[in-house]
Specification:
- This protein has two domains: about 200 residues, Rossmann fold (3-Layer(aba) Sandwich); about 30 residues, no CATH class.
- Strands 3-2-1-4-5-7-6 form a seven-stranded mixed β-sheet, sandwiched between helices.
- The chain is of the alpha/beta class.
- α6 runs antiparallel to α7.
């Protein structure tokens, strides 16, 4: 499973912003004398696993797709870090069995909580893989952004339907619900960033103007941690630490 990076180029846009956040997180869990160990749940072909391995981490990637893991292995070999990337095929909902109870310094759960059948159980299984003092990196879609996007697209009827759905038991998991899960599991949310605050709203034709793409990247990055802009981002990234 991978994140849809849309119009992003390597090192820019949503991909670039999340990558920078992950590299900062990696630095925060480094300890002298050993390499940090990471787990990427649903990491697919290694969008983040390969760069993190290049940065010095030992990364295990769990994904249900054999094709995606084959691409991961190829990319890791091409980057010269094949020995640092360990593909494991299987369903993230059976994570405990797949990793044998191992614990990691940094665990990525990007786009996973929207895909599991039982969110609470899925979250608990991922949380169990975080060592004391370690971090969980969570990327989750923001249902609020869907309402804004529908309205700006001139679809008020669909925007109203999206708004009403936010307050039903069947509502999609969102960042506030994830924060509640973290609190209930004893995790401390240390950072929250909106990803793609404006990039999902700007028409592609506008990016053909000189300097527009770079300006949009800077705008998204500057708004990512600022209210109220971060609250309307299409995705929200949270870093939560397990005390210890």
């Amino acid at each position: 499973m991978q994140i849809d990076t849309g119009r992003d180029r390597p090192g820019t846009g949503r991909f670039g912003l999340i990558s920078r956040l992950l590299l900062d997180a990696l630095d925060s869990v480094r300890t002298s004398g050993r390499r940090p160990v990471l787990l990427d749940c649903g990491g697919g072909s290694g969008t983040y696993a390969v760069p993190l391995a290049v940065a010095g981490a030992d990364v295990t990637v769990v994904d249900i797709s054999a094709d995606a893991l084959a691409t991961l292995s190829r990319r890791a070999a091409e980057a010269g870090i094949a020995s640092s990337v360990h593909p494991v095929q299987g369903d993230v909902e059976a994570l405990g069995d797949l990793i044998g109870g191992a614990e990691f310094d940094l665990v990525l759960a990007h786009g996973i909580l929207e895909a599991v059948d039982d969110v609470a159980a899925g979250f608990a299984g991922i949380r169990a893989a975080v060592r004391p003092g370690g971090l969980m990196s969570i990327l989750v879609g923001n249902p609020v952004a869907a309402v804004v996007a529908r309205a700006l697209a001139g679809e008020p009827v669909l925007a109203l339907a999206e708004l009403r759905e936010l307050y039903t038991p069947e509502a999609r998991i969102g960042p506030d619900a994830v924060e509640a899960l973290c609190a209930g599991a004893g995790l401390v949310v240390e950072a929250r960033h909106g990803i793609g605050v404006f990039s999902d709203l700007v028409p592609g034709s506008a990016l053909d103007a000189p300097g527009a793409r770079d300006a949009l990247d800077e705008l998204d990055a500057a708004a990512s941690g600022r209210s109220p802009f971060a609250e309307i981002a299409g995705r929200v990234h949270l870093l939560a630490r397990r005390p210890g």
